[in-house]
Specification:
The chain is α+β, with helices and mostly antiparallel strands. The chain is 34% helix and 19% strand. The chain has one domain. It contains two helices and two strands; from the N terminus they run E-E-H-H. Strand 1 and strand 2 form a beta hairpin. The longest helix is centred in the C-terminal third of the chain and has 13 residues. The chain is elongated.
Length: 73
């Protein structure tokens, strides 16, 4: 299928593709060679929390250390 990149850098997904995406609203975008790959991302609350922690630079080890500290109190 052929799609066009608009002057506002937008691409419209073909109607034939949309049903196979399920209820996805967000997509992870990666580049593989000369291909753009869109991967549906679940929008669950837990995912949103993990994404915010990642943006803040908080690692799994930080969370474990905080839990250990809290259990010692």
């Amino acid at each position: 299928m052929l799609v066009k990149l608009t002057s506002k850098r937008r691409i419209t997904l073909p109607t034939a593709v949309v049903p196979s995406l399920g209820e996805a609203e967000y997509f992870e975008v990666t580049i593989e060679g000369d291909r753009i790959v869109l991967t549906p991302v679940p929008t669950q609350k837990a995912y949103a929390v993990r994404e915010k922690l990642r943006r803040l630079g908080i690692t799994e080890q930080d969370v474990e250390a905080a839990l250990d500290w809290a259990h010692q109190q």
